[in-house]
Design goal:
By secondary structure, this protein is mainly beta. Among the domains are: about 70 residues, Ubiquitin-like (UB roll), CATH 3.10.20; about 70 residues, Ubiquitin-like (UB roll) (Roll), CATH 3.10.20.310; about 210 residues, Porin (Beta Barrel). It has six helices and 26 strands. The strands form five sheets. It has a 16-stranded antiparallel β-barrel. Strands 2-5-4 form a three-stranded mixed beta sheet, with helices on one face. A three-stranded mixed beta sheet has the order 6-8-7, covered by helices on one side.
Length: about 550
């Protein structure tokens, strides 16, 4: 047998060795790959979505002035055989008569008579009739029949009072409050919805009160509108980044509110890692289209990265550019219950470069529909339930990633996020949350769902497990105290995640993953918009990489608003 001699040149071996590093440096069980622009973009966007929005205070509507009660001579009492109801239009006489039945057949003094009339007033106002009240008119009582008159109240006019520095145009304000005077009665649900939609415009503070109308039995609705400063800003610092792009990240956010008087809001967000290996920025604008809860939004975002250890030798770098367009419609808006639907379009231009291996460019188009709901109730000590469900369909132009993933072409997925915060007592609360996604086919890294990190299983580093199908469940018991001029809280939490790396698994190895962790949390916030949080979590399942093998894994975050 003749043996042939082969000479391997360094120029051939170097790319081969680099490719081997990519494969061997990643556990196939965990489906780990070199971090990509899509994955890093997904992590940044998920953190931005967790930001809390301003909640209007409960005193949107000032109650109308108390009505004078009937007056009788001292010691006077009336033998009441029955009550006769007059002036009622919205509710039947029999229904209202049943409300005062407990006072019939009794001898009543002035307080008892006013209590009977108050029962009818409460019925109206509990059902949202803000101006309605019942009273005992001047009358001659014969055979024990006492008249209770109902004045349901109507709006004579709507007055708008604006502060001197208000930038919001009169036209936009009118769009939100028009129609109040056209209703036969002022219903709390309708007035509350209009005021909340007006308060949803960033920086706007709107309230309503009542004044006597020009006609008897009517009232004027007085809407006062003020605005906060046109610029709001905040800075944040955390360790929620990945080791390869910089664990410590600092960010700044600027919100320009109502610059054009249209109810517009423009948010500028910048973030970088401590090594400068990841830089992201976004520009998002939103404005109401009408005063009935329809709004439009548009945004641009860009991310650039360069991977450090353990991928330094690969010369890995990349970028992501995203265009977003969307519409949102508030179907239900109140202090306790809310429901909205949204539609959006996203264009993504992604590029990942491995100098020794490949130059991978891809684009995607995605259309999405979403439904969001929240409900505040008095169950137990009171609680808040929130839910978001969505469906997205799109197409990816090219995927030069792991062979066999077949992520190019059309894709679709469902997403969900359901949470409940239950008040147990004045200082104790219990929170539960379940979130995740279900893909119908294999996804690119930019569309996968992250199971680990600050918003996943907190016992692991960010980006350690991203899946096509999966969910994260969290349970947290929290205790709050007043401390150092702010609110301090401590918590115990348990995180659990389960997922499938690919819908159609083609690579060898386990396609499933289960993660769990338990931990402690501390948080402090004050009225000066300073928030500090810290969590320490211990993993209760497998080690995914050397970076995540920390006991405990600690996350911290600091936010300061200005």
């Amino acid at each position: 047998m003749t043996m042939r001699n082969f000479t391997f040149h360094a120029g051939f071996m170097l790319p081969l060795a680099a490719a081997g590093l990519v494969v061997l440096g990643c556990d196939s069980t965990a489906a780990q790959t070199v971090p990509s622009a899509g994955q890093l973009l997904s992590d940044v966007q998920k953190a931005d979505k967790e930001a809390l929005t301003r909640t209007p205070s409960n005193n949107l509507i000032e109650p109308s002035a108390p009505r004078p009660a009937i007056k009788l001579p001292d010691g006077a009492r009336v033998d009441v055989a029955r009550f006769r109801i007059s002036g009622n239009k919205s509710f039947g006489t029999d229904l209202l008569a049943d409300l005062v039945q407990p006072w019939q057949g009794r001898t009543l003094d002035v307080d008892g008579l006013n209590e009977a009339a108050g029962a009818i007033t409460r019925h109206y106002q509990n059902l949202g009739y803000l101006l309605a009240y019942a009273y005992l008119p001047a009358q001659k009582i014969e055979q024990g029949v006492v008249e209770i008159a109902v004045l349901e109240g109507t709006v004579d006019s709507v007055q708008i009072v604006t502060a001197q520095d208000v930038r919001l145009s009169d036209e936009v304000i009118q769009q939100h409050v028009q129609g109040i005077a056209q209703s036969p009665q002022v219903l709390q649900a309708d007035l509350e919805r209009r005021l909340l939609l007006l308060n949803d415009i960033p920086g706007v503070v709107a309230r309503a009160s009542f004044a006597p109308g020009a006609k008897p039995g009517t009232a004027d609705v007085v809407v006062t509108v003020a605005e906060e400063e046109p610029l709001a800003s905040s800075i944040d610092f955390n360790n929620q980044g990945s080791a390869s792009t910089g664990e410590y990240r600092i960010g700044a956010q600027f919100q320009l509110r109502n610059l054009f008087g249209l109810g517009d809001s423009t948010r500028v967000r910048l973030q970088t890692s401590q090594k400068g290996e990841l830089v992201s920025g976004s520009l998002n604008s939103r404005a109401p289209i009408n005063g009935r809860g329809l709004s439009a939004e548009a945004g641009l975002s860009r991310l650039t990265y360069e991977l450090g250890a353990p991928y330094s030798s690969l010369g890995a770098r990349g970028e992501a550019n995203v265009l977003h367009l969307g519409l949102n419609k508030q179907l239900l808006r109140s202090m306790n219950d809310n429901l909205s639907v949204s539609a959006g379009y996203d264009y993504k231009d992604l590029a990942d470069v491995l100098e020794l291996i490949s130059n991978n460019k891809k684009t995607s188009h995605q259309f999405s529909l979403g439904l969001s709901a929240s409900s505040r109730d008095s169950l137990g000590g009171g609680g808040l339930t929130q839910s978001n469900v969505g469906y997205a369909i799109g197409s990816l132009s090219w995927d030069q990633g792991t062979p066999g993933l077949a992520a190019a072409g059309h894709f679709s997925k469902f997403t969900f996020d359901v949470s409940r915060r239950q008040t147990l007592s004045a200082n104790w609360s219990l929170s539960a949350r379940l979130s995740g996604q279900h893909a119908l086919n294999n996804l690119d890294s930019s569309e996968k769902y992250a199971l680990t990190g600050h918003y996943g299983v907190r016992a692991y580093a960010p980006g350690q497990a991203s899946v096509d199908r999966g969910s994260v469940a969290a349970l947290e018991l929290r205790r709050a105290w007043l401390l150092a001029g702010g609110t301090f809280s401590g918590s115990l939490f348990y995180d659990f995640a389960r997922g499938s790396f690919e819908v159609d698994a083609s690579a060898p190895g386990n396609n499933q993953i289960v993660l769990r962790g338990v931990g402690l949390g501390l948080a402090w916030a004050n009225s000066a918009d300073l928030d500090i949080s810290l969590s320490a979590a211990w993993r209760g399942s497998q080690v995914l990489s050397t970076d995540s093998d920390r006991k405990p894994y600690i996350y911290f975050q600091l936010n300061k608003g200005f």
